[in-house]
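dumping these here so i dont lose them again. two proteins, back to back, each one seq then structure tokens. dont judge the mess
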Amino acid sequence: MARNHSKESHATRRGGIPLAVAIAVAILGVLGILIVDHGPWNKPQVKTAVVVNSTTGDSARDAGATVMPTEPKQRLEPDAPGPKPVQPANPAAPAQDF
């Protein structure tokens, strides 16, 4: 005959191996992140004054690129093509005298 499990207490069940594996993976993940971010190989790098004061243009010229200035923007935008609106979008309310 089959055993009736519905009457057994669910409190006796335990997380067991899957819970232990999940906790171990979480702990190893956090430790891995800490080691990678704060390891002895991750130290600030000292740069010389020449490297610090160079610009993007200087680097591009050193690589053999031609650096050209951009065209200046026009101060006023030209009129938009197409018909002009006949009425304003929000007409002013008429004045009322009382």
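---- next one ----
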Amino acid sequence: MEQKDQVVNLSQPDGHERFFDLKTGMEMSRGEFIQKIEAGEYPGYYVIAKNGGVIPSSSSDGDNNKLD
């Protein structure tokens, strides 16, 4: 069965500033979402370094490797 993302990016495609959890109905900032990912609250999501910052990302295959 195909896994659908639980969280959607509410910002522009490259913005990654606001996120919405489809299961809980909670909206989060990028910082809040990253903290929750790092706390293990969102299995299947991880944090990657990009353009001098960090962004949350999902893994379609469940591989949660973090790129530092």
